[in-house]
Input
Amino acid sequence: MAVKIRACSKNAPIGALLTAQFAREKLDVIEVEWGNTTCLEVDGGQDGNVTFNTGAAISRYVARLVPSLGLYGSTALQRTEVDHWITFALGSSFCERRFKDTLGLLDGALSGVTYLVGSTVTLADLHVWGTLFVSERWRSVLDRHEGPVNVVRWYTLLSSDERFRRVVESIPTSALTKPTSQPFENSDHLPTGRKEEGKFVELPGAQKGKLVVRFPPEASGYLHIGHAKAALLNQYYQVAFDGKLILRFDDTNPSKETLEFEQVILEDVAMLQIRPDVFSHTSDHFDLLLSYCESMLRDSLAYCDDTDAGTMKQEREQRKESKNRHNNVDMNLKMWKEMLKGSEFGKSCCVRAKIDMQSANGCMRDPTIYRCKTEAHIRTGTKYKVYPTYDFACPIVDSVEGVTHALRTTEYHDRDEQYYWFLDRLQLRKPYVWEYSRLNMTNTVLSKRKLTWFVAEGLVNGWDDPRFPTVRGVLRRGMTVEGLKQFIVAQGSSRSVVTMEWDKIWAFNKKVFAVCIGNLTHPTKRVSFQVIDPVAPRFTAVEAEGVVRVRAEGVRRGSIEVPKHPKNEAVGTKTVFLGPDVLIDGVDAEALVEGRNATFINWGNLTISKIERDAGGRVTSVCTKLDLDNKDYKKTAKITWLCAEPLVRCTCVYYDHIIGKAVLDRDDDFRNYVAKNTKTEVEMLGDPELRHLKKGDIIQLQRRGFFICDSPYEPLSRYTSCESPVILIHVPDGHTKQLPTLGLKAEKERRQMTGNEQSQNSLGTFAERSPKRETTASESMSKVELAASIQEQGDRVRRSKAEKASKEVVAAEVKILLDLKSQYKAATGSDWQPQTASSARITNRDEDVKRESKGVQMSVSNTVGIDHEDAVSLRAKVDAQGERVRKLKSSAGSRDDVNEAVQTLLSLKAQYKALTGHDLAGGESRKSAKGEGKKKKEAKAQGSASGETEAQKVDGVCSTAKKTTRLGLEAAKEEDLSDWYSQVITKAEMIEYYDVSGCYILRPWAFAVWESITAFFDTEIKKLGVQNCYFPMFVSQSALNKEKTHIADFSPEVAWVTKSGDTEMSEPIAIRPTSETVMYPSFAKWIKSHRDLPMRLNQWCNVVRWEFKHPQPFLRTREFLWQEGHSAFASRAEAEEEVYCILQLYRRVYEELLAIPVVPGRKTEKEKFAGGDFTTTVEVYVPINGRGLQGATSHHLGQNFSKMFEITFDKPETNEKAFVHQNSWGLSTRSIGAMVLLHADNVGLILPPNVAAVQAIIIPCGVTVTTTENERKTLYKKCDEYEETLRAAGIKSRGDYRDNYSPGWKFNHWELKGVPVRIEIGPRDLKEKQAVAVRRDTAEKLVVREADIVGEVTRLLRDIHVNLFDRAKAALDANMVVCRDWKEFVEKLDLKCIIQAPFCGQPDCEDNIKRDSAKDESSAGGALMGAKSLCVPFEPLAVPQPWEKCIHPECHRKESLLYTLFGRSY
Output
């Protein structure tokens, strides 16, 4: 049998070609030919020909033809791994943003192995190698010799294989270059360099002149940019194949569509220059769709169902058939007639396709195809009472209207099977479904339902709000149609799902496109696009608040004409008014100096004769004299200004993202991340030329950025006697990321300037600009100012690179930096060096921001030089105190005296740093050549400790300011608990996220905590006679359903296995949510006599509970680790005794290991374990959010399960059969989450010593360039000795001897990981036979003698545990309160308290308490859950009195009251 593979010559399927080459060893009939598409057609016998269209599918098929080669693996596990790596190679893992992380993952997988799967080459190796082979990024990594060692080894090994070389040699050159889409084939007109165009995949089977595509929007909202991508993509292929485009309104839901939305969509489509060939509506085919539905009912392919929506959803999730599924045809037609009439019964019904309720694809589980709605339709009125669903109508109308290729986003992938099922059953022509990735943007939502919510809640000002991602919204904010189109073109039709940042789209908007990227309606024409920058006229405005009046002596009123754009005369000219009084910004006024000249842009030099200030030092007015004959514009402050008259009132509006989180996870509720304060208005006084702006005009305000006119100026109204100001909306330019909030006005202005203007402002005197032109930053300044400016610009370069700004933006910033360095060299005669930054007297980043916000020049500082008399005096004190410390240590002074002297020395050094901005490492009197070298090394180490490495010293710039890195936490526990928690567990290396939502990888650091818990608990239960065992994780359906009450609580969370390979299983098998129904059949077999009792078993295992709520690592996961104990006793008394004994062990786990206080108690009837008699629990209080957390539970099951599973024994006295009394008890990895929530802080994790994998980390310090090899070895040897000494004493210690990290970096690293004690040892400590110990919980430092190291560290660990426990206990005691009044109950709940209150114990009353204590979304702070019972404490804070009643106001029960603990909970 010949196998002929056709390979696309524009995008070679490397993996498939390699598979074919390997298969030729056994199968010599494989042929490869090159064409326009990739496919393999196989004779399928009676089923007809089968065509494989992807390289992955071809590889799998060919590998199965030659199983002896093992290309697809030799076992089921290996085949699964191979499939994983093929998907990995085809996915988005190798995209630009994730490339580095992907290589790291691949390097880890190849560590210690030769091939990815098994011991031979498999498809996994072929496809991953093929993906790397065509990757330009990978080739660049190889060229720079930066590839991970394991990946390079593996790649080189495969590349040397003769079979790989043959495939590479056979590939046409065109297949190795980036594919170009057909409409842009005129490459003659393309300039060299990078094309702003994405990858457009050829549509399989598309023919010139015969292609028909469609764009089917629903008229239920405005088009957003995701719809714009879909529309433009369809038009792209329409033009490329000279085909036909249908614009079809999906009007199948009369309750959503409106004529207004339909009209808006038509306008938006026209605005995007999309020209459909045909306009249609799904409602045009309603009669046809009705007939198809009725025929399906008659053919038993569908049925009518009156099940309510909630139950239907639950049944579909559980794969449970509806009660109506087997209705006969007559019954279905009868119900159908009721639907057609729109009767009350008919409105409760729907029609469902009878497909397959057991399908693994949820879309195939009998989907709804028709529903009854009595609302009037916008086109058909009340003619119809039933309407089809989109999923039913879409394939039918596609087929009827002649669509050849249906383009759908990948989110519809699961519905493709349903799409073709309808066409097969109705025997209709099948269009080809082509998938492409949807457009995802950061900090927003693109769901029409969610956008509608924003509009309905009044959080935005309509669908065209500038914060909205709608086409109207982005256009109103200043996006141009061409900018939007070119952004979409750049995305292409790839299936790779990526999330784009808004900076990218705004950068496209600002660029000048002069390349043939083809107008989508004229694909071969050369088009020149000028979007914003070169054509936006420039005007001036000053802030109304803080404006300063400048008096210019001898100036008469007049005007001059200047260009609106200094680089584009075609934009026109504007009138600049002159007068004796002009206005400038307050920040500019602060930069002026008496006696010096300032250059007023477009006017000339003015000499500052007098500056008047108020009592607070703020400039109130300035007097100047004209010096227009002086044409020296160097070294002068450049001022933007306006004549005091005439002026125009103007409002500048700044918008921010509507969603505060960059990328929402699948389980995130977007309403929890709605950003606040996303609109800021700044009142301005503007250039009189602004009067002439029209709505939609885009301009640039000097030093403030681009703006679009949203509302033009209106003169004085006779109705209001007021004039309407110009409303200008700020247009982002993609240059820098927008701040979450706009903050200080000066900082906001700086971030909104163009790149050139930012560089000018960074010079401290607002740059050199002559009156007639704008200049670059290449003109000279003073040495001090230049050094400060270079420092600031270097920070800006680093920030741009860190934020992944475009190449053009980074290049512009680097050019400014190089210009500044050139100025410095010209002014001083020497190159600028990092040390020069000290002359700029910059202290730290916080001071920089403060000065910028006040408009003060960068050269101004509160610090002094190191030669200043105050600094010299303070340095002498440091030397004297240092000498005193050394004498005390050498004379073996008391520890208290040494510690006091050290603290005094540290205080003096801190004063010195605050005064000069420099650290003082030691006594200045010990200066020498060696000392100077040591200083330099320590300065370098200090930079490393703050996160700065050599790799971050961009273009020779080394900031003395403290650097911010990604090593530490970027969220505060008090401000964003969710983000903080996620960062703690990931950055402390406890958790790695996994590609199955709700499942997580426990890294060794977290698993060590679990091991400590298991070791303690396992030892204790074995003392009680408990034995360990293991039962299978799979549960049969019949066993699981045996105890109905028990399984009812778990039913929504049960995960089911329904397939084995491609074969449906006869009966689905559950994965255990708990093990009662797994273990108890065996108990029934093993227990026959009283001699078999008690039976006490425990297993350490995992369970799966498919939670539908928001998952959180450790706290709420779909799979977790736990221990579950199950026991059987002859008497109830024995069983109850064990319940409380186990609960006591759980209390010890939390208090003695995790340092967490708990509240032991009994669960209420509503909250007890399903199927049990009673449940006991230990409850944890989380102070940061006031929630309770169930720590562990011990259940008494009574005889409920023994009766169900017939677990009996013979009584010794009577030989009668009796049912056993049972318990079950469990503790899970949730305990680790409780530990993190209670103890971790804003620095990172804090591990209780008794569960820490490392209790003491030893870090050698003071190794510098002047340290000899012998000194280094001696230091490291001493560290080893400390490590061994501590280990011998049972203290888990480790030394960190990595030489590629500084001590400061290591300090941060181990603090983040929460190690209880850090031990620092340096050369001086060696001489003094001591070490420095640092506590993680308090950051307290103390000097420890070498001889006392074991005792001191042991004491520290004990003290740390006690301190952690006491802090948590104090929080618990302070926030656990007694309430007898409902109003007080609710108030305390909102104050994050847990409450003990009298409670009747009835489930209905508990439901009322939860409902009525909930906080709805309209309340401040958003929605909060109500209180639920946590437990009835064994030791309550109060006892019920005869006159007390239940806490809920509607409940008047006074009997059987118990003080019950309530609170919001996890």
Remarks:
- Residues 760 and 766 are 5 Å apart (CA to CA).
- The chain has a mean pLDDT of 81.
- The first strand starts at residue 3 and ends at 8.
- The longest helix spans residues 1349-1375.
